[in-house]
Amino acid sequence: MRIFVTGASGWIGSAAVPELLAAGHEVAGLARSDTSADALLAAGARVHRGSLDDLDSLRSGAEEADGVLHLAFKHDFDAYASSGLAERAAVETMLGALEGTDKPFLFASGLALLAAGRIATERDASPFSGPESPRGGAEQLALSAADRGVRPVALRFAPTVHGAGDHGFTAVLADIARRTGVAGYVGDGSNRWPAVHRSDAGRLIALAMDEALAGAPALPVVHAVAEEGLPTRAIAAALGEALGVPTASIPAEEAADHFGWLGAFFSADIPASSALTRERLGWTPSGPTLFEDIAAGAYSAAPVSR
């Protein structure tokens, strides 16, 4: 089957593409630059030129595919509202191209603030709807397309998809610790974050795609979660030890000043289960834990400019 992948050369996409190829699929990856195109060709994928803002390229990529994997997102948290609007427009465009075809549309979603204070499961509905909501309310929008002849599947990733080379939330926390000289957590740090290794996320995507190609999943939500909920004070302590800086509590009223935009996320209690995902897809995470990655030095070096 031919799979059109946005974000194919990104952090998660570059782990998913080899898994899709190994499963026997042909992959066409969206590329906006020569660097991305070269990475896709080196991986064995085809190149589909375009970008997240080029709706015509998204439409043609979806129309030519047997299934779509949408992983791209504008991670600009200083302009998060506009990122959400761009996400909604991209999702609407690809859903329109797939309408009436009964083809899969797998898309990246998140667990942040989904069910704060309790363990989220795959049966929890996203509370976000409408263009002004987080990620443009794209999860509710996409899942509603099941009534229009599309097979949508929400891929809810843990807030930290970790590994060597990561430039996501954990890398940002490490950078803040380097700059401030302290590995901080908010309040008593008892709030929890789920985690998953990048390699496990890549394998899970391929399993979910094969399930969706075979027929509409009874439960159109997948949780990419290997560790259900790590106390944030323990995450901070691990980073502090790896970076050689002290660990300290940051009062809640100072979290925004210390952590910037990440403060709202890092102070949230958002544990999540993947029990239904594991049972349904036979997925068993086997990659390093977050603490193993931190101890191995995955976050010890300063980030590379991007």
From TrEMBL:
Signal peptide: none annotated. Residues 3-212 form the NAD-dependent epimerase/dehydratase domain. It comes from the Bacteria. SUPFAM superfamilies: NAD(P)-binding Rossmann-fold domains. This is SDR family oxidoreductase. InterPro entries: Epimerase_deHydtase, NAD(P)-bd_dom_sf, NAD(P)-dependent_oxidoreduct.
